[in-house]
Amino acid sequence: MKKNVFFAAALTLFIAAGITGCKKGADAVLPKQKDGKKLTEFFEKYQRSAETFTVDAATGGVITTSKGSKLTIPAGAFKKLNGNLVASGNVKIKVLDIFKPSDMLLGNKPTITTGGAMLESFGEIRVDATINDTVLALNDKPIMVVMPVGNGATGQQREIPMWNGVEPDQIQEYVMNGHNHLNQPTTVTQQVFMATTLQWEQINGLGAATPTQSTFPIDALGQWRNCDALYNDPRPKTTVLGYFGDGFNSESNENINSYMKPSMLFFKTKTTNTLIRFTVGILNAAPGKDGFLSYQNSIPVGQEGTFLAISSKNDKFYAEMKDVTIGTPAPGANFFGVDFNMTEVSESGLLSLINQLNTK
Fold first, then answer.
1. Mean pLDDT on 15-27
2. Which range among 152-161, 242-251, 310-319, 344-353 shows the weakest confidence by mean pLDDT?
3. Would residue 237 count as lying in a domain?
4. Contact by Cβ (8 Å): 321, 356
5. Distance from C-alpha of 357 to C-alpha of 267, rounded to nearest angstrom
6. Which of 7, 20, 295, 349 has its CA 20 to 30 A from that of 177?
7. DSSP string of 204-216, one letter each residue
8. CA–CA separation, 22 vs 104, rounded Å?
9. Which residues are paired to 12 by β-bridges?
């Protein structure tokens, strides 16, 4: 029996339909479409991989990643999933740390909450541990992490909330309520797979950021943790729509069984460690107005930042990087629109554009 699942651009209510959640790296399901597969493989080729270390279970130790993150592991920190303490032996530690916008983009780890709020990141990390291929948990002793992400201030220390990474399942949907190219409510009836992206939900605990680094605890293994501050901005908010023109790949509105789509839109806020991915597609768009929109009324008017529009189309990459100040909606409108005119780029050219976000 066919089910209806309703999708709202500002707040999504999903009903599961037996589709497995998307995974990173080798676990990701590549889309059948050639262009979607090409872009997916590009991201997986260049995204940051976990690093492996070894520590003595009895004594613990300090490890430092190639990106400069330092993890202090206490003595007797690990236990097996049955609760038994791991008293001795070499424990294999895998660490994946992310703190640059380029790595957030390539690793599908943007800075947005499950409710659509913007975050400023002071470090994202996942730690896994095994002994003789047996998966381990923490023995009620947190791992302390220091990451080279400062608060940009001059001498102040700032408390930062902790967040848990949530990867929503890809859900088969039949009816979608969304917004068109004029940000007006509209409905599309179609079988699709939603492209999911990791989002963050707040948990107990606090970290601290100084001008040069952030320090925070990891309370669980095998889960993403983020030391992030809510992007509190008192300015009025608006909805932002990005129009891809003839650069949009229509397969982005079709069955893409992957967290990737062949057309994607990102926004890096100026001078802060905030990267947003616009995942909500424009429905029933007029010619040339296909693309993506933000959560409703979520972007501050006057916000400066840089957009990066990306498409994989006809076995080629297209992109445009564009510095924009979000303006006030035109009279009678409830959104601010941004037009893109993407040009063909090589694989190395696309990677260069992504890396440029680190200095924006």
1. 33
2. 152-161
3. yes
4. yes
5. 9
6. 20
7. EEEEEE-SS-EEE
8. 16
9. 7
Q: Which positions ≥6 away from 234 have C-beta within 8 Å?
A: none
Cα of first residue to Cα of last residue in the chain, in angstroms, is: 50
Same domain, yes or no: 147 and 252: no
- 316: Cβ contacts below 8 Å, ≥ 6 apart: 344
Q: What is the pLDDT of residues 74-126, one digit of tens each?
A: 999 999 999 999 999 999 999 999 999 999 999 989 998 888 889 999 999 99
Place of tokens 């990701």: 28
Number of compact structural domains in the chain: 2
Stated as kind and residue range, the H or E segment containing 36 is: helix 34-46
Domain housing 250: 172-195+233-359
Q: Which of 97, 212, 201 is nearest to 149 (CA)?
A: 212
User: What distance in Å separates the CA atoms of residue 159 and residue 116, rounded to the nearest whole number?
Assistant: 22
User: Over the range 286-311, which residues count as b (16 or more CB within 10 Å of their CB) and which as e?
Assistant: eeebbbbbbbbebbbbebebbbbbbb
For the entire predicted model, the pTM comes to 0.82
Map tokens 């397969």 to a residue. Answer: 251
The CA-atom distances, in angstroms, between 311 and each of 32, 89, 151, 240 are 16, 48, 33, 19
Tokens representing 274 are 């905030």
Per-residue tokens: 69: 């993150």
Helix (H, G, I), strand (E, B) or coil at 245: helix
CB contact at 8 A, 170 and 20: yes
